[in-house]
Amino acid sequence: MSKKEISSGTEKAEALTRKKSGVKTEGTKSKTPEKKSVKKSTPVKQNKGGKTVKADKKVKKNKRVKQLTEKQLKRKQAREQKKIELARIRAEKKQKRLEKKLEAKQKRLDRIAAVKQARAERKAKAKERRDMLKHESKEARRERIAEERQAKVEARKAKTEARVAKREAAMADKRAKREHQLKLRAQKRAEKNEKRHAPGFGGWLAAVISLGVTTLALGTMLTFGWINMNGMQADMAAVHTESLYELNSIVDNLDTNLAKARVSNSRNEQVRILSDIAIESEMAETVIERLPLDGQLTESMTSFVNKMGDGAQSMLYSVASGKPLTESQIATIEYMYKVNKEMKDIINELTANANAGDMLAAMNGKSGNLLSTSFDTIQNNTIETPKEINDGPFAENIDKVTAKNLEGLGEITAPRAEELARKYFEDYNVTDVKCTGEVVAEQLTCYNVSIKTNDGEMSAQISKLGGKVVEFNSFKDCSDKNFSVERCIDIAEDFLDDLGYDDMEAVWTSENGTTCNLNFAYEKNGVIFYSDMIKVKVCEERGIVTGMEGLSYVLNHVKREVPTARIAKSEAREKLHAGFDVEGSRLAVIPFEGKEVLCYEFYGAYEGNDYYVYIDAKTGEEVQVFTVIGTAQGKALM
């Protein structure tokens, strides 16, 4: 076979073989000196075509290796691409989590900023009010109070009108629904009378289409209404949550001011602190009423906050007149600080843990929600009903019973209530009387009567049964003191006699600025019946009654039979504490655990504090003990 017939591939293979075996090709010079080959050259076998068999196998092997490497590269590239995709997905998830955290943090910061801003605004308003009160003249103050009271009256009137309008709208809606139902029934009866044979295909198709359209429209309306209702509930939950944050801030401020009041000894500082406590107590009472809770859950808290404000005002009058705080008033501050601190801890925890779901559960009245549980703790554990008084014994006692004093009396009309109001208050120079509606207090229905006089406006509640004055308030302020307490008692007794409340005895008196507050109880044969109590306010500037509340008397008073004591007063006195200094004593019937008990009432002092002690006049057992707190001006009348 000639050289030309050998393919170039074969030549390259042979040359490579010879090079490895040490054989020189023609025309090729060796670069190294000639050496004897140590290894024997591998014999090269050729096939019939003249091609080298071994070289051919090696070429095939190299091609196969090359092909495997490309597959591995593809798989490697696929793996790398997959890793890149997974890394991208992880990075996106991480970015979303980070954005969500940042969004939640921003919302929390915005909420905190809103609370701080609201707190700053309240403080600014409080400071503005203090500055106004500091520089306000007596005349300006009287005008402002009159305007504020008028605004409250108008607000109550608007609220009543809105409630009436809402009730009328509900009744109109109910009537419209009823008429619609009647119309549908009449239409169905007419259709039933017309359908005396089975409908054809066209009628069936029309009915199906009509039903489908109606169902679609109804579904759309229900869905839209559900979305709207959800939105309204969410808005209301946000409003109530804001009220909770506001209450939390007020209780914190009260805690700070009460802590300062415990150690303050400067007259100016005490005036400022007590003013803040009085203002914040009023704010707290308003906020509590806005929370979506049953009144029974907030009753004790509202009562405590109310009494705290009254106590602060009483101390403020005392300090402003140059008198130091008494031991009783200091003890009152300690009590208020202790109770408010326990309240603060519970409300702080509630504010930190409550969410929108808890607020919605409270709004929907679901039992066991966080809001009601927390306030139930405050109601039952934190604010225990203290056996302390600041406005006379049994002044807060109102048994929820029927109006015994009005049983058997006929009902009066609204015009008759107006006539009686003119008669009862004829000494007040009445110019106009108007009945503005009805109100229900406990088991008693009364007419609300607005009275205009030459000196200002007044309001009264006159019972629908019998036409008795149950409550009365005058909105004109008192600024000077021209009448003594003894004279005020005489004025109040004459006022009660004119209203038909006879045989009433003054049992407690206290002064609040230029107003004399008196508690009267029914008296028969020297025995005081504390269940039948009437409270009266007398203006010490003008010498007239400016307020009266007789609900307890109307609900409890009946024709009384005086019970007989089984033990002597001297025997009952032996049951008292050895160090108790008795200043006065008498027989009294007191409300106790749902019944009335005849007791010997002992009033006196022990280690600087005033006490009322009640000993059962039949068994000689100690029934009740009260300590007088809140005001150094409160005084028992025996």
Structure write-up:
This protein is α+β, with helices and mostly antiparallel strands and 638 residues long. It has 13 helices and 14 strands. The chain has helices at residues 8-21, 53-135, 138-194, 201-263, 267-290, 295-320, 327-353, 356-363, 370-382, 414-424, 485-499, 551-556, 569-573, and strands at 388-389, 430-441, 444-453, 456-463, 469-474, 504-512, 515-524, 527-539, 544-549, 581-592, 595-606, 609-616, 622-628, 635-636. Strands 1, 2, 3, 4, 5, 6, 7, 8, 9, 10, 11, 12, 13 and 14 form a 14-stranded mixed β-sheet that branches. Strand 6 and strand 7 (515-524) form a beta hairpin. It starts with 7 loop residues before the first helix and ends with a strand.
- Main sheet makeup: 14 strands, mixed
Number of helices: 13
Please estimate the helix content: 55-70%
Identify the overall geometry. Answer: extended
Observed structural traits:
extended, disordered N terminus
SSE blueprint:
Blueprint: H1 8-21, H2 53-135, H3 138-194, H4 201-263, H5 267-290, H6 295-320, H7 327-353, H8 356-363, H9 370-382, E1 388-389, H10 414-424, E2 430-441, E3 444-453, E4 456-463, E5 469-474, H11 485-499, E6 504-512, E7 515-524, E8 527-539, E9 544-549, H12 551-556, H13 569-573, E10 581-592, E11 595-606, E12 609-616, E13 622-628, E14 635-636
Parallel strand pairs: 1-13, 8-10
Antiparallel strand pairs: 2-3, 3-4, 4-5, 5-9, 6-7, 6-14, 7-8, 8-9, 10-11, 11-12, 12-13
Helix pairs in contact: 4-5, 4-7, 4-8, 5-6, 6-9, 7-9
Quick structural gist:
Helices cover 55% and strands 18% of the residues. A hairpin with a 2-residue loop joins strand 3 and strand 4. The longest helix has 83 residues, at 53-135.
